[in-house]
Amino acid sequence: MYCITEEQIEFILNDIRRNGIETEDLQYNLLDHICCIIEQSIREGDHFEDVYRQVIKQFYKTELKEIEVETQYLLTFKNYYVMKKLMMISGAFSAFVLLVGSIFKIMHWPGAGILLVSGIASFSLFFLPILFLLKAKELKSANDKWILGLGVAMGALLCLSAMFKVMHWPGANIMWIVGLGVSSLLLLPLYFLNGISNPDKKLNTIVTTFILIGVLGVLLTLTQIGKSPADKTAYEQQHVER
Amino acid sequence: MIFSTELLKGTLKTIVLKMLSDTDRMYGYEITQRVKELTGDKIQITEGALYPTLHALEKDGLVTTQIEYLGKRQRKYYLISKAGKGAAKERVNEFTEFAQTIATLLDIKTNMA
């Protein structure tokens, strides 16, 4: 049987590395496989390199790198379906509990606090982070990922600050102001400039930016309204005292 | 007739697990040869599909590995794990049922036409 020399092994290894096989494990798997095929199929008088070129061609459709990509895909997306399920469950749970909690709050029924806290906590600490992980995998550019990450973080911060506010915990106001400030002064301009440079996303970006400005405007107004009853009471109290 | 890779894609894990549960250990090339032999060349597993699947099975803990050094070459042997044995059984059963269902389904369609 034909025996492949060390130089030929080196040659094959270099060639598959050059063609995009980066995982070492996979390199040695393919090397052994190629050697086996060559040893079985080479005839006397055949040129090693010609046989190698013939063999390696059977490994892919357009390029060898496909095997590396497919391997990485299978390894990293192993938990994809579990995560997707978890996202749906935490999303549904948050929405339901939040809705029930707010009804309880309006009606001044007991248990509103615990419902609102668990709803908001699961929304901002489970649903949003999982959503980010799944979406980030679909995005190719690093800029898109950063903006998505910042957006998710600010969304979570605003939700948590609303929770702190409802529970009268300290730090709610500062979280609210940081959340709104970063969203309107950093996130929104970054989102707009990044999206508008891509012709495919231009219209979508503009429309979404308007919606976001509207939402942020409403939230800012609410900040003012939220303050006024308390201020008013303080003011009235002062008057009463006088 | 040689079956297309698209048709095989969903069953590759089942095939590999079954092959490994019938022997002590196998390496990649051996698996492709064994499948070819058993199916009379009708099923030819491509390297591009086999190795990603083997790596995924290893990560899932369904197979374990042993490495042997042949000079500068390394040969990685795959062995079925306990969890893999269970998975193989389950997948083979599932596939049998699937194949029967498809057979019934397609028969009904032919009869109707």
List the SSEs and their pairings.
The complex is a heterodimer of chains A (about 240) and B (about 110).
Chain A lengths: L5 H13 L5 H18 L6 H10 L7 H12 L3 H28 L4 H27 L3 H25 L5 H25 L5 H40 L1
Helix pairs in contact in A: 1-2, 2-3, 5-6, 6-7, 7-8, 8-9
Chain B lengths: L4 H4 L3 H10 L4 E2 H11 L8 H13 L3 E8 L2 E8 L1 H31 L1
Antiparallel strand pairs in B: 1-3, 2-3
- Using only C-alpha atoms, the radius of gyration of chain B works out to 16 Å
* Beta-strand share of residues of chain B: 15-25%
The number of domains of chain B? 1
| Biggest interface, chains and residue tallies | A-B, 28 and 22 residues
What percent of residues of chain B adopt helix (DSSP H or I)? 55-70%
Average pLDDT, all residues of chain B: 88
CATH topology of chain B: Arc Repressor Mutant, subunit A
**Helical proportion of chain A, percent range:** over 70%
3D shape of chain B: globular
Terminal Cα separation of chain B, in Å? Answer: 25 Å
Name the beta content range of chain A.
under 5%
**Span of the ends, CA to CA of chain A:** 108 Å
Shape of chain A: elongated
User: CATH-wise, what's the superfamily of chain B?
Assistant: Winged helix-like DNA-binding domain superfamily/Winged helix DNA-binding domain
- SSE pattern of chain B, N- to C-terminal: HHEHHEEH
Q: Class by helix and strand content of chain A?
A: mainly alpha
Could you name the ranges of chain B where pLDDT drops below 50 across 5 or more consecutive residues? none
Tell me what the CATH architecture of chain B is.
Answer: Orthogonal Bundle
What is the N-to-C succession of helices and strands of chain A? HHHHHHHHH
Count of DSSP-assigned helices of chain B = 5
> What is Rg of chain A?
29 Å
